[in-house]
Amino acid sequence: MAPRSITEDPDLRLLVDGRIIRPQVRSGLIYRFEVAAVSEARIVSRSVIPAAMDPSMQDVRRLGIGLIALQFRSANLDIVVPADDPALTDGYYPPEDRHRWTNGRAAIPTALLACFPAGFSLEIHVTPPQLRYPLI
């Protein structure tokens, strides 16, 4: 079997009302997106099952990114959602230390989106690279 091509780049993006939005800025471990008014959004990334990449690993979860926080901003409102926020359920694993893993398709709670009817800037704060993702 030929070796797999791998990357540490999670290819982080948003799926917003059915269309992909790429980050406008990436500064270290922070990805910033500009989002118009939206009814549904997901944080999408590459994902991997660690045990499938390295048989010595025990983790059989499909892991996307290590999320530290989400920061939503508009002219009138600034909301920081830490990794341990109980609203983060669909596509998120339970919190670990100061982060929580996504499964590669994590929903942004609609209640948060509703706070920004005219759109918002979103910063996604992630952990340093811990995974290697296969290039398919």
Written description of the protein model:
There is one protein chain. The protein has helices spanning 50-53, 110-114, and strands at 6-7, 13-16, 19-21, 25-27, 30-35, 41-44, 66-73, 78-82, 100-101, 105-107, 120-126, 133-134. By secondary structure, it is mostly beta strands. The radius of gyration is 15 Å and the shape is globular.
What's this model, at a glance?
With 136 residues, this protein is mainly beta. The protein has 2 helices and 12 strands. Strand 2 and strand 3 form a beta hairpin.
Topology:
Elements: E1 6-7, E2 13-16, E3 19-21, E4 25-27, E5 30-35, E6 41-44, H1 50-53, E7 66-73, E8 78-82, E9 100-101, E10 105-107, H2 110-114, E11 120-126, E12 133-134
Antiparallel strand pairs: 1-12, 2-3, 2-6, 4-5, 5-11, 6-10, 7-8, 7-9, 7-11
